[in-house]
Design a protein that fits this description.
372 residues; alpha/beta; Rossmann fold; seven-stranded mixed β-sheet; three-stranded antiparallel β-sheet; N-methyltransferase activity; transferase; SAM-dependent_MTases_sf
Length: 372
């Protein structure tokens, strides 16, 4: 949409004609959705290329959007360049995968035990949600926390760079005021790195009992440093929850094979729990992990010209019109990889892609492992 303002000055006129000079200034604004997508990924002031993802963002939006750099040169274009197609491909991903169900199952069955162990009996708990999106998952976590600590009040720090997503979150909170009267919300419209810088400038001494980083480490430049900082904020008995695609998933195999062609070098777009575990192991940091089984039906991807198959291929590769623009060699290699037993299984005539998620739970760093 463009808004134009014109000013005209008539410099000469007679009974028969008039000569005027006009100057027009036009300001064109991109769609609110596209700006929200870009903000969700890159933070404030970055409307050059999500989540209206996460979900990055419906509840579970991956939002693994791409900046095309280096290896991803022309003619390959990022899927995010076409908002309409991205939305269609993401919606199809949700329909074809069990990611939503596996996340809900984790929140209901495994998360309560993790939450029960935090706080050490305190009457007030501090929670930080990093990359909270529209808050759907956050509110479910707070509900489970309430059941495990029924008498406690909660200070909930929300870290989310998208103003659009924060607006959705705040609307949800306003609709549940009575249920959430024990929670004080602090809204931080910023990226994880901005939150870290702000925290250090303020020399904040507050410590957190529970921090969750769900499907967001794809968007930081240094996942290890980001984890180090947030882990350093944990109080005694505090827990840091990380959820990403599993290193054992088809994503892990695809990225391992075609990282240079498909992944951005500006952020950690192709990071998996396998990468995080290796990083933690190298530092001698202990953790607990869980695998969340999930599948995605990608059968249509192998039917040439199938509209839904091409949408799924775009989502898997994050390349706009991948089947039409990728080189024959790259397309053949990716298709072979997707059908490889490490990526997918075939049953009853369907090709089911391994869409597993991984969960990593960290405790407070011991003093000898503390990283500034």
């Amino acid at each position: 949409m463009c808004v134009c303002v014109c000013v005209c000055v008539c410099v000469r006129e007679s009974e028969c004609y008039r000569v005027c000079v006009c100057v027009c200034v036009c300001v064109c604004a991109e769609s609110v959705l596209q700006c929200a997508l870009r903000l969700a990924r890159y933070g404030r002031g970055a409307c050059s290329p999500l989540d209206c993802r996460r979900q990055k963002h419906t509840v579970l939006r991956r939002g693994r959007t791409n900046v095309i750099t280096g290896a991803m040169a022309s003619p390959l274009r990022s899927l995010i360049e076409d908002d309409s197609r991205y939305q269609k491909s993401f919606q199809l991903f949700l329909e074809r995968s069990s990611e939503h169900q596996c996340m809900q199952e984790f929140i209901r069955s495994r998360l309560p035990d993790i939450l029960a162990s935090v706080g050490g009996g305190k009457s007030h708990l501090n929670v930080i949600g990093v990359g909270s999106g529209a808050g759907d998952i956050d509110l479910q976590i707070l509900s489970e926390l309430r059941m495990k600590h029924p008498g406690a009040t909660v200070d909930n720090e929300v870290v989310e760079p998208s103003g659009q997503q924060l607006l959705h979150y705040r609307v949800s909170v306003s609709q549940k005021q009575k249920e959430l009267d024990y929670v004080k919300f602090t809204w931080n419209k910023m990226t994880a790195s901005e939150f870290e810088a702000n925290w250090k400038v303020k020399r904040t001494t507050k410590r957190a009992d529970f921090i969750h980083m769900i499907q967001m480490l794809y968007y930081v430049k240094d996942p290890g440093a980001t984890i180090d900082f947030f882990q350093s904020l944990l109080d005694e008995n505090g827990k840091l929850l990380i959820i990403l695609v599993s290193g054992e998933s088809g994503w892990g195999k695809l990225w391992q094979t075609y990282k240079d062609q498909l992944c951005s070098k500006e952020i950690s777009q192709c990071v998996t729990t396998g990468d995080i575990k290796s990083l933690l192991d190298s530092k001698g940091v202990s953790y607990r992990s869980h695998e969340l089984p999930s599948q995605m039906d990608i059968t249509e991807c192998f039917t040439e010209g199938d509209e839904k198959g091409e949408l799924l291929l775009d989502f898997l590769t994050e390349v706009l019109d991948f089947s039409k623009t990728a080189s024959p060699e790259l397309k053949a290699g990716v298709m072979e990889c997707l059908r490889h037993p490490r990526c997918s299984v075939e049953a009853n005539g369907r090709v089911m892609f391994n869409n597993n998620l991984g969960v990593i739970v960290l405790d407070k760093l011991s003093s000898k492992l503390f990283i500034g």
